[in-house]
Design brief:
- By secondary structure, this protein is of the alpha+beta class.
- It has two domains: 165 residues, no CATH class; 437 residues, TolB, C-terminal domain (Neuraminidase, 6 Propeller), CATH 2.120.10.
- It is 11% helix and 23% strand.
- The protein has a five-stranded mixed β-sheet with strand order 29-5-32-31-30, with no helix packed on it. Strands 10-11-13-14-12 form a five-stranded mixed β-sheet, with no helix packed on it. A four-stranded antiparallel β-sheet has the order 6-7-8-9, with no helix packed on it.
- α3 crosses α5 and α5 crosses α6.
- It is globular.
- Keywords: Cell membrane, Glycoprotein, Lipoprotein, Membrane, Oxidoreductase, PQQ, Signal.
């Protein structure tokens, strides 16, 4: 995936022809699942090919339409199209799933909002305003509006609810997507189509960085209060609260290494692939002071560490038959998610190092591939937990494809409704959490109830797009040849270890059995790169996932997804074209360090690139600026002109520079995750 970019979708399609019935990463359906190709064609709704409706869904919509008893053919026609919009592969966008307020009807294209938009909203009003509609989808309360009065037959006219077309379209209408990267779709009475003729924007000329700290951190989380503060955590088990300087101020990150916000280094087992792997702050942290840490522990040294082993009879695995790994016994090391709280009512006083409760504990069969990141979903408020396949070359026990195993999965917990100890035991839970009612086990009875997505090797850094929360991207570390970025959807299977990327994978040994390629419908990566792209000898490569860049500091990066290789030799920018299509290309982007960086950058002899050492993670603050957390310090993306890069949209008058800051001592050492 070099130079001009490469679309993984093409590879996906070629393999699709040989093995599969469907393959799609985006768009998304209203239930957060990926669109699919139904086994039987739809009979009622005109959505064939990739759709969000099964044959059963289609029959249900037909029954709903018949129950409306619409007498007017014109009104019946537009109402049928509106009902069937749920089958559109862009239905999550049409029904504004990201808004957090479910809609019964899609956003109707309204020319009063945009001169470039089809005026379907006015067509609906003209056709149906005086037509009685039984069980009308328009009668559902909208945006705080009280439910409209209905007669005894539950029949409603549009004029019973709205006084005019303007009122109707102000409530239900919306413009067509603007030319920006953030425009949502609207419904014009027919299946959504995208303009595939427009060329993608040219890649940025480069990424300019400034160094604002020397410390080496694995995690960064913006303070939920919206301020310029953020939490930084290292792998050893400490969290600090720091103040991020304004862009162009020439100042460094304000963080007191001697006064951590939380210190649980006594509980955390720190080694190459062990340590504090994730932190997440409750969406209402400013009110309740709740936060969570994901970390590794050693039950041989800490009895409170022990939990059930991931290798167990439920997944046809016997831990007594597993060999020691790097001197450790099977499930000696555990993956933990624990809840903590602040001291008193303010985060300024730090946190209590004693756990409030243990959310999750699971023994790890091997000493690698534990992932461990935790994130709160921006729409649902649930806690997402990323877990690797447990280690071993080629996932020998095929945990990632085993629907009864939690290894190689993304899990989703409700941590606001804590069950009693008796309920935890009765339900066979791994800790103190509840199962969200809409987790995909409802549709796939074979899945463990905690699972949101399967088929991952070692998801290393995931993020929700702050502008479009339905875009949930996870980088997944490859085995032999390919590093990938996946767009995660509810119940999605991302292929490992039947596939590495979009290529069939055949493990050197498989005591846990194999998964037939024909037995799964994998969702292939939307971006990625070959190991040879960063190492001409085909050697080590390991992806680090990042963020959709939503700051306007560098306008030429806006809307692009950034990711890097651990070994700091390359950063990529992924571009989606058309917007909302799920079709991405990615290009390797040059990067440099500003001459006026608050802390001086060092450079590798013989290389024009700053010596970042290892890129452990990316971070995002409340201003949507993006940071690189590396072994050599903390770097922030700044105005491209500060590195003499050109961006036509940059307003040069806003560029504020400062003289180079003083050099500082090198950062403390940190174990290199051999992912």
């Amino acid at each position: 995936m070099m130079g001009g970019g490469f679309s993984v979708r093409i590879v996906c399609f070629l393999i699709l022809l040989q093995f599969l019935d469907s393959c799609s990463a985006l768009p998304l359906c209203t239930d957060s699942r990926a669109p699919f190709t139904p086994t039987s064609p739809l009979q009622f709704c005109p959505y064939n090919g990739t759709t969000c409706c099964s044959y059963t869904d289609d029959l249900s919509l037909k029954k709903q339409f018949s129950s409306m008893n619409i007498s007017n053919p014109g009104c019946a026609s537009v109402l049928k199209s509106i009902l069937c919009a749920r089958c559109d592969q862009f239905s999550a966008d049409l029904f504004r799933v990201d808004s957090g307020s479910p809609r019964e009807v899609p956003v109707l294209c309204n020319s009063t909002a945009s001169s470039n938009s089809t005026n379907f909203c006015s067509q609906v009003w003209t056709a149906c305003r005086n037509i009685p509609i039984l069980n009308s989808p328009f009668a559902v309360p909208l945006q705080g509006r009280a439910a409209p009065p209905t007669n005894s037959s539950n029949s409603t006219k549009l004029t019973d609810i709205w006084q005019s077309q303007i009122d109707f379209c102000n409530s239900l209408g919306g413009p067509s997507p603007p030319s920006s990267n953030d425009g949502p779709q609207c419904f014009n009475g027919a299946p959504v189509t995208l303009d595939n003729t427009a060329p993608p924007p040219p890649p940025p000329s480069g990424i300019c960085l400034e160094k604002i700290a020397n410390g080496s951190y694995l995690n960064m989380a913006a303070h939920p209060d919206g301020s310029n503060r953020a939490f930084f955590a290292n792998q050893q088990g400490k969290i600090w609260l720091g103040n991020i300087p304004k862009q162009g101020s020439g100042e460094m990150l304000e963080l007191d290494e001697a006064s951590p916000f939380l210190d649980i280094t006594d509980e955390v087992h720190f080694d190459t692939e062990f340590g504090m792997m994730g932190i997440a702050f409750h969406p209402k942290f400013a009110e309740n002071g709740r936060f969570f840490a994901s970390f590794s522990c050693d039950k041989a040294k800490w009895p409170d560490c022990a939990g059930r082993c991931a290798c167990n009879s439920d997944v046809d695995c016997d831990p007594s038959k597993l060999p020691p790994d790097n001197g450790a016994q099977p499930c000696q090391f555990q993956s933990v998610v624990a809840e903590f709280t602040v001291n008193g009512s303010s985060s300024e006083k730090g946190a209590n190092p004693s756990e409030v409760r243990r959310i999750f504990t699971m023994g790890l069969p091997f000493t690698s591939h534990h992932a461990g990141q935790i994130l709160f979903g921006p729409r649902d408020g649930h806690l997402y937990f990323m877990m690797g396949d447990g280690g071993g070359i080629g996932d020998p026990y095929n945990f990632a494809q085993n629907k009864k195993s939690l290894l190689g999965k993304i899990m989703r917990f409700d941590i606001d409704n804590i069950p009693s100890p008796t309920e935890v035991d009765q339900l066979g839970l791994w800790g103190n959490y509840s199962i969200p009612k809409d987790n995909p086990y409802k549709e796939d009875k074979e899945l463990q109830k905690e699972i949101w997505a399967i088929g991952l090797r070692n998801p290393w850094r995931c993020s929700f797009d702050s502008s479009r929360p339905s875009y949930f991207l996870c980088a997944d570390v490859g085995q032999d040849g390919f590093e990938e970025v996946n767009l995660i959807s509810k119940g999605g299977n991302y292929g490992w270890r039947a596939y590495e990327g979009a290529r069939p994978y055949f493990p050197p040994q498989s005591p846990g059995g194999n998964t037939s390629l024909r037995s799964i419908n994998p969702i292939f990566p939307v971006m990625g790169y070959n190991h040879s792209d960063v190492n001409s000898n085909g050697g080590s490569a390991s992806i680090t996932g990042g963020y959709f860049y939503r700051s306007m500091t560098d306008p030429c990066l806006h809307g692009r997804y950034l990711f890097a290789d651990l070994y700091a030799g390359a950063i990529w920018a992924g571009t989606e074209n058309p917007i909302s299509s799920g079709n991405f290309t990615s290009s390797k982007i040059s990067f440099d360090c500003a001459d006026d960086s608050p802390l001086s950058c060092t450079f590798t002899p013989g290389s024009p690139l700053p010596a970042l050492s290892y890129v452990f993670s990316f971070g995002e603050d409340n201003e949507k600026d993006v940071f690189l957390l590396t072994n050599s310090g903390v770097y922030r993306i700044v105005l491209p002109s500060r590195c003499n890069y050109t961006c036509a949209n940059e307003n040069e008058s806003t560029a504020v520079t400062s003289p180079p800051g003083p050099s500082a001592p090198p950062p403390p050492s940190m174990a290199t995750p051999l992912r």
